[in-house]
Each structure stands twice: as structure tokens, then as C-alpha cells.
Amino acid sequence: MNSPGRVIGFVNAAHFIDHYAMLIFAAAVIIMGPALGMAYSELLPYATPGFVAFGAGSLLTGWLGDRWSRRHMMVIFFLGIGASMIAVGLVQTPLQLGAALLAIGLFASIYHPVGTAMIVSYADKLGREMGLNGVFGNLGVASSALVTGVIGQYLGWRFAFIIPGAVTMLVGATFAATVVHEDRKGTKQAAAQARVAKEDMWRVILALLIVVIAVSTTFNAVTVALPKLFAERLADLTKSPALLGVIAACVYVFGAMTQYTIGKLLDRHSLKTVALPLSFMLAPFLYLAATLSNLPLILVSIGIVMGAFGQVTVNDAMIGKYTTEEWRSRAYAVRYFVGFTAAGASVGLVAWLYQQGGFTTMLHAFAAICVLSIIAALILPREIRVPAPAGRVG
Length: 394
Known about the structure:
It contains 15 helices and two strands. By secondary structure, the protein is mainly alpha-helical. It has one domain: MFS general substrate transporter like domains (Growth Hormone, Chain: A). The protein has a two-stranded antiparallel sheet with strand order 1-2. Helix 7 runs antiparallel to helix 8 (157-178), helix 7 (126-154) packs antiparallel against helix 10 and helix 11 (271-279) runs antiparallel to helix 15 (371-379). The termini are close together. The relative contact order is 0.17.
């Protein structure tokens, strides 16, 4: 029988790796450009296919998680994404780079529909575990900027991909040796934990679609653009890639703390009670960030990541609360397909907006998009809590 603590520990580690791997390129591209003789706006679009695959692949991986095995899918995740990171470190041409980044995106698409469903199945307190899982993902984002900056400065950009790839494959081998295929009979989270009136379910679906598109697009745009934004706007503070990575990492730590706090609040309050005040954070902070630099930009960036990462926790908990075990991976697959497809499109949008008017135009545009998250929170109906059944996944 699998220990819930061990399984959740590995799934949390996978969330860290998933976001870390997807964002190495965003930090490394700053030093890859001169090495490959390409401009930032020329190199960045090579990440687009990988980000699209990150979302599109979730439909298939979520279906396989429900119909085949979540454990087996996670083994494939660890080994596949590790090998793909190593492959990026070995590329010689832009075409090879695009193919290797695509492979990272395809294997990364396994985690969210499969791993998040595993968290729900093994969790005692759903909100707390969702929040803690979000912390690991957020730390993956933060560590990616920090570690990539340090390794890139001292060992070169290739090792920034090769070293984490090798570590990930070791974690995958350990997971395969210690976690067995799940037995879903008597699943603790077999039933939904909350429901809404049947006639109001369309409001839940509409609100989820709106906020997923708005927040996923903004979330990805911010995480991709932040290293370059700091490199431009914090020039009076530092020009060191390593120190810029440290600053970005510190900003993301606030997002991690927000996710844990939001998760605990979701165990005590309805989704709408938590989501509504949170929805008002993103638009004003993004608008302010458009014209700021140095310390004021750092402070406003903290508000942006707190709002974005808090919203992600709300979105994941919504599906965990309202879906049953049988359909859970597929429900997450649809959520992440919509979210990550929009997020993938945001990479090209960032490059285009940056060419049009720099980060001022880009941040103003995403501030306007985030007004939609307020509308989504207002649409959410009243929640009716139901008790979760006893029992646990084996």
C-alpha cells in the first residue's frame, strides 16, 4: 500500500520540477542570445511549441491517467522531462532547440492533470494540500530563475539544462522503485466535496473558463517576461544575472506563501468568499508595473505574483471540490488544456507586444485582460458543502 505522505511528497517534487523545467529557457535566453548570435525577440518564439504542447498534451495524458495508471504516467513524466532537459543542453541549431523545448512541453503536460488528481485522491485536507502543492510549483518557478542565473553565469547555459535534467531522472528512478500502482477502491476523495445547485452549474463552468484563460495567459506571460523585465528595469541596482535571479526568486517566495494561505482559507470558506477579494489584485498591480523600475517595481511585482499564484490555487481547488474520482484527471486535463493553450499563445504575445512598445505596452495589455478575473469571481454561485467519504487510496 502506498503511504499518502510519500506519494504526495513525490507529487509535490514533480510540481517543482514541472515549473522549473518549463522556465529554464525564460531565464537562460538572456545569455543564450549572445552565444547563439540571436536577439531576445528572435529566440523567445522557439519556446512557443513547447508551451502549446504543455496544454494540448494534457488532454491525452489526463485520459491515460484515468483509464490506465497515474503512477505509470508519473514515471514517464520524471524520466521523459529529465531526458528532454539534457537534450536542450546538447543542441547545436535553433531547430534542434525548438524540438527539445517541444519535448519538455510534451512530458511536462503529464504533471498537472495526473499529479493534481493524485493530490486530491490522497489528501486529508484538500485546501491545505493544494496550497502546499502550489508552494512547490511556485518554488520551482523561483528556483528556475535563481539556479539558471547562477549556473549560466559560472558554468554556461548548457549546464543550466543538463544538471537539473540528470537530477530529475534520479528522482524518477526513486519514485518508480518506491511507489506502486494505485488501487482506487475505497478512494477517500471518491465523491465531490462540495456542490452547487444544478441550475447554477453553468455559472461555475463559465467562471472557471474565464478566469483560467485570463489568469493562465497572464501567469505565463509574467513568469516568462520577469527575468528580462528585471534585467531592463533594475539596471540601477544590478547587472549580474545571478543577483537578478536571486531577486526574482525572492519575489516568487511571496507567491508561494500566498498559495499556502489561500489553500488553508479554502478549507474554511467557500470558493467565492476567497476568490472575490483575490480577483481585484492583478489588474491594478500590472498597470502600475508598466511604468515602474528598481525597488518600486520589485514591490509591485510581489503583488502580481501573489495575485496570480493565489488564483491558480483557487482554480485547482474548484475542480478538486466539484468532481468525482472517476473523472478527475480528465476534468483537470480540460482545465489545463484551456489554460496552457492560452498560456502558450502568451509567449508569442509577449514577444509581439515587446516589439510594439516594450514592457509598458505588454503590462498594460495584460492588466486589461485581468479585469476578466473580477467578472469570473462575481459569477460564481453559492456553494453547498458535502462530507467527503471515509477511506483512502491504497
